[in-house]
TrEMBL record:
SMART domains: PBPb. This is ABC transporter substrate-binding protein. InterPro entries: Solute-binding_3/MltF_N (IPR001638). SUPFAM superfamilies: Periplasmic binding protein-like II. Residues 1-21 form the signal peptide. Residues 62-287 form the Solute-binding protein family 3/N-terminal domain. Keywords: Signal.
């Protein structure tokens, strides 16, 4: 289900770090005051949930989690190249609740779902928008609600609803790349107007820099990601329009896996005991918090 909701820019003020004079670089060497995974949030193991894990996971003592760590503040790299971000903290909390370790399998975004369906990863957690199309490949345990927000160069007026003929940057294989911008472009051509040219980049930093350098007229990304990018570019970017098309994020799990109900109950337990909200508050992204961990919410809309 998609509904319109405005996400205020103030929602990410807690994670705005040192502004950069040049192009954005979200490696942790540049991340100054950004939060990082914190041992201050303690998680207690739930023995009943742990006992429900598949035998292979219990035997290995770890959950292999597919992730693309190029989407700050959700997931990105620290100074040592390790993944950090609020989704990383939440993944670690899930693993701790289940009495195992989180083993992050870093990969390109579009390779994660194939790794899940092929049995290489136990699940994927990388800001996956739960869509009915993706639900044909995997099941989703929903844990957050995010919208889409465009950004343009400061002083440049861009209307996401009237963007025919523009160049729009997006990270490859994200919902914005595969669905949102192409749908807008199709509407343009059907109306006899120029198509929108989608400029695809492997990382969100590259998509952001394309706008700063004038290669693209705008970027499209999930709302917390766009607001974070704006906060990191020393006034070079501005929001273009308002947040729209709010939809759920989900943990991507192999279809029919016995792990799905265990993860659903684990996320719900973290919501109920306050751990989930503490993590989101720490990163300033609690605007998208949910109170119920659903399964395959997109198909229920």
């Amino acid at each position: 289900m998609r509904t319109s909701r405005i996400v205020p820019a103030a929602a990410l003020s807690a994670i705005a770090a040192l502004a950069l004079a040049g192009c954005v670089d979200n490696s942790a060497a540049q991340n100054g005051g950004s939060p990082s995974s914190s041992p201050s949030i303690q998680v207690t193991k739930d023995d009943a949930l742990a006992a429900a894990l598949p035998e292979a996971v219990r035997s290995s003592g770890k959950l292999v989690i597919g992730m693309d760590d190029t989407y700050p503040p959700n997931e990105f790299k620290d100074a040592a190249g390790n993944p950090v971000g609020w989704e990383v903290d939440l993944a670690n909390a899930i693993a701790s609740k289940l009495g195992v370790k989180a083993d992050f399998a870093i990969a390109k975004f579009d390779n994660i779902i194939p790794s899940v369906t092929g049995g290489k990863d136990d699940f994927g957690m990388s800001s996956f928008t739960d869509t009915t199309e993706r639900e044909q490949q995997v099941d989703f345990v929903n844990y957050y609600s995010a919208g889409i927000l465009w950004a343009s160069a400061a002083g440049k007026t861009v209307d996401p609803n009237n963007a025919c003929g523009l160049k729009v940057a997006a990270q490859t294989a994200t919902y914005e790349d595969t669905d949102e911008v192409p749908a807008k472009s199709a509407a343009c051509t059907q109306a006899g107007k120029p198509a929108i040219e989608v400029l695809r980049y492997d990382t969100q930093d590259d998509a952001t820099n394309a706008v700063i350098l004038g290669k693209a007229d705008a970027l499209s990304a999930d709302s917390p990601v766009t607001l974070y990018a704006i906060s990191k570019t020393d006034g070079k970017l501005q929001a273009a329009g308002e947040t729209f098309d709010v939809a759920p994020y989900g943990l991507a799990v192999a279809k029919g896996s016995t792990l799905t109900p265990t993860l659903q109950k684990t996320v719900q337990a973290l919501i109920d005991d306050g751990t989930y909200r503490a993590i989101l508050d720490q990163w300033g992204v609690s605007d998208g918090a949910v109170t119920t961990a659903e399964v395959n919410a997109a198909s229920k809309g």
